[in-house]
Design a protein that fits this description.
Blueprint (H helix, E strand, L loop, with lengths): L8 E5 L11 H13 L4 E3 L1 H13 L3 E8 L4 E8 L7 E7 L3 E8 L4 E9 L9 H8 L4 H24 L6 E8 L1 H8 L21 E2 L12 E4 L9 H10 L8 E6 L3 E6 L4 E6 L2 H7 L11 E7 L6 E5 L7 E2 L1 H13 L11 H4 L3 E4 L2 E7 L10 E4 H23 L11 E4 H6 L2 H6 L11 E5 L1 H11 L3 H11 E3 L6 H9 L12 H9 L1
Parallel strand pairs: 2-4, 5-8, 8-10, 11-20, 13-22, 14-16, 20-21
Antiparallel strand pairs: 1-3, 3-4, 5-6, 6-7, 9-10, 11-12, 12-13, 14-15, 17-18, 18-19
Helix pairs in contact: 3-4, 6-13, 6-14, 7-8, 7-10, 10-15
Length: 518
Amino acid sequence: MNPTDRSWIQTVSLVPPTLQDNTADADRLIGALKDRLQTDAIHLDLDLLKQLPECLRKWKYRVCCLLFQDRHRWLVTAIARADDPPPMAGLAVDLGTTRVVLRLIDLAAGSRLAESGFDNPQLAVAPDILARIHFAESPDGFTRLNELIITGLNRSIEKLCRQAGLEPRSIYAVSVAGNTAMTHLFMGLDPRWIIREPYIPVVNKPDIIKASQLGLDVNPSARALVFPNVGSYFGGDLIAGILYSGLHRRPDVAILVDVGTNAEVIVGNRDWLIACAGAAGPALEGGVTAMGMMAAPGAVDRIAIDPKTHVFEIHTIEDQPPQGICGSGVIDLAAQLFLSGMIDIRGKLVAAVCADHLKKIDGLAHLVVVPADQSATGSDLTISQADIDSLIRSKAAMYTILETITSSVGLQPEDLTTFYVAGTFGSFIDPRSAIAIGMLPDLPLDSYTPLGNSSLAGASLALTSAGCLEEIDRIRDRTTYLELNVNQDFMNRFSAAKFLPHTDTARFPSVEKRRRSS
């Protein structure tokens, strides 16, 4: 997708000045760029103005210009010799609550130079956004959270540039997509009112800013685009996902779901967009159980249970000995337990069916998924009844979010024809398992389209397609945010969704068919 043919990098040949044409150097360059870009607004920083006279004459008035577009004008952020320009890179950042991913991009070619990620260092303070915001209110807490993420980014930027054979000064453009709270902590903005009624961020649409003002160790003239947010719990990461998916240009109604710390959902087409977000993510990412872990080598990511013998068939990432279970594995497990009759429609363990798989730990029922002699930890990997209850609540919240947002436009989840699923969750989840537990609607499997890391992809797209800011702002301005915190219908629907797959089993015909055949 390329919303414009204009490039970030423009090479112009200027007519040298004469006694008859004594136009100032800056005006000469600006005039040529205005003609090229069909704009009335071009800005040069003072540090570039200081270099301009000598450079124009040394380069015989052929100049390579690196530009960045803000909401009011085009900014010239670097000039170079047209015949042999230095490397000019852009940095795209997916600013996740748990994981931060960076991608280095060649701005001239639009190609990927390098990519890496690191665990968000704010995890050392608190695992979730709510706890971090409360920590930010403690003495020096806010400063520490900001310093942790900026220091982590700068360390990763240095390593990434070294991997690509570049200096950090070669980065002239930065694009950052994250949820509203992470964006605030990154920019040094107080997030306290995001979590207090009526849930107001400091800013929804940040201006283009010098990256150095944010503390990033890149070129001093580099500009940073921080993706705008729509509401307190609907951030720029999903705006980036919409940009990447192209949902906002579709003639038919489609939906996009990104499950991370929260479940963020957008439904719409080229004429309208409605968004909402809710707390359904952590349990669906593997945080439901003591054996939960992120998707990594040794994580159980797929499970099958023989409906007759109840023998477990386990698959782990990179076929390593199992040491925990990630989100896709948890959903597979719940689906297989339900289809095999080991849990009932309420999600309760059926002792007669579970038989030897059950054991008591501290007086609580646990189901052994991986026995100690087969696990990497040397201990049983188990899931408790309390863990399963938590998963049921999370899956119910997920489906209720989908039902609430679609019903707000006169549709049911089952009416959708295209269902984009973003993030790590979308990359690994088996839609059949998610449907079996009533987390996702019972749509044909080809309706589900995994997007991978759509936040990073959207942030990258903003660096390879000049003029993307206009499209980003159109997405943001056309999006209506539905606040679930004050939606009574949500709680009513939530109660109905706390069964497997749902109290209304007619909504899940394929699940009933699979259960009968088991």
